[in-house]
Amino acid sequence: MRNLKYKILLALFIISLISSFVLSIASQASTEFCDVNGDTGCSTVYNSQYSQIFGIKNCHIGVVVFFVLSILTYFQIRKPTRQKKEIINYSVIMGFVVAVYFLYLQQFVLLEYCRYCLIVDFSMVFSFGVVFWKWGK
């Protein structure tokens, strides 16, 4: 049961990794890839000034971050250590803050939504809840 927390986190990180990867593929092809039924929210969010940090697309950063977190969480399940636990916890806290910021931007600044971005953002919100869940207490 103690590994349940990390199994849930691993699933959420993999979901976020896949969503980030889809957005990365969309950047190589066309942002119309993620716009379904004429919904332009994805393109609006993807091409906004908030879609990159230091010239690197957020989705590319997401692929790297969620890949590393997935591997780290897998090894935490296999052989738990305090150091890996702390890295995961602090990463989730930082990810939660970034996710809330991106949700704010989509809701109040851009007034558009990207479904893949929402998957990543809500996965981080759920991850935050999992990290601070009082397991077994």
Q: How are the strands of the largest sheet arranged?
A: 1-2
Q: How many β strands by DSSP? A: 2
Helical stretch count?
Answer: 5
**Gyration radius, to the nearest Å?**
16 Å
Low-confidence stretches: none
Helix content: over 70%
Taken together, the total number of domains comes to 1
User: What do we call the CATH topology?
Assistant: de novo design (two linked rop proteins)
Strand residue percentage: under 5%
What is the SS-derived class?
mainly alpha
| Average pLDDT reading | 88
How far is the first residue's CA from the last residue's CA? 13 Å
CATH superfamily: VKOR domain
Level-2 CATH architecture: Up-down Bundle
The string of secondary-structure elements, in order, is HHEEHHH
Main CATH class: Mainly Alpha
- CA-based shape: elongated
Largest sheet: 2 strands, antiparallel
3D architecture notes:
This protein has about 140 residues and is an all-alpha fold. It has one domain: VKOR domain (de novo design (two linked rop proteins), Up-down Bundle), CATH 1.20.1440.130. The chain is about 70% helix and about 5% strand. The chain is built from five helices and two strands, in the order ααββααα. The longest helix is centred in the C-terminal third of the chain and has 29 residues.
Task: Kindly list the characteristics that best describe this protein.
5 helices, elongated
Question: How would you summarize this macromolecular structure in one to three sentences?
Answer:
Helices cover 72% and strands 3% of the residues. It has 137 residues and is mostly helical.
